[in-house]
Amino acid sequence: xxxxxxxxxxAIPARxxxxxxxxxxxxxxxxxxxxxxxxxxxxxxxxxxxxxxxKPQLDAESNGKCAYCEALARANAHCDVEHIRPKKTYWWxxxxxxxxxxxxxxxxxxxxxxxxxxxxARLVEPAITGTADxxxxxxxxxxxxxxxxxxxxxxxxxxxxxxxxxxxxxxxxPYHEDPEPFFKWDAxxxxxxxxxxPAVTGGRDHDRAASTIDLLGLNREKLMQLRxxxxxxxxxxxxxxxxxxxxxxxxxxEQALQSALQDNGAFAAMNRHLVRQVHGLPL
Length: 283
Known about the structure:
By secondary structure, the protein is mostly helical. The protein is about 40% helix and about 10% strand.
């Protein structure tokens, strides 16, 4: 997992910003009111067509990889628009662009699902009731999620992120913090696998790293084997780097390593750890 940055541009579909965003929020609030009034067990207003338009931009932000496991997602599995805070629990953030990340179906559906453990109090949902009128719905809209292109909206980015951080979530969010210092990668040359583990022993950082690994299934067998394939190549290049190669060959090795360290490289965080921490190369 590597640090990701929201690319706040008009490439973000119109439905997630400006007047369209507020209109969809009001529809969401009205649907929630009707759901409460009906007493139905399931809130069935939400469906993937509401957030699927964000997928191309999320794909660009995560460099065509699963934001969680860093596999080249399009080459291995279909990807989902993953709700970092699950829509089942955080229904009011279901249409919030800043609550989305691109994730492979194995990380998202097989492992994380609707789980989102936190160490502190959860966010409080908008105060919608089964008798809420249009005036209340209008007043509540634009108050619980930011506009991804305008920090002049009612809810500022910094305030929204502070609310999210106040939960002290167990899942590391690559958009809100740099995940790399939390992890290390341990290779097993007998099994041909690379396991990811917490980089520190004890404390909250250890617990959050361990929880993230467990929630996302980051040590599932096939993923560890896939990491091993990349690890072998990068490890061999690192050994060759200082082996007194002819200048032209040395340059090719260096270029290959530099490429593997880029954000769009498969398992870039593992590659950086191997190159810089294990081999201590100045790249």
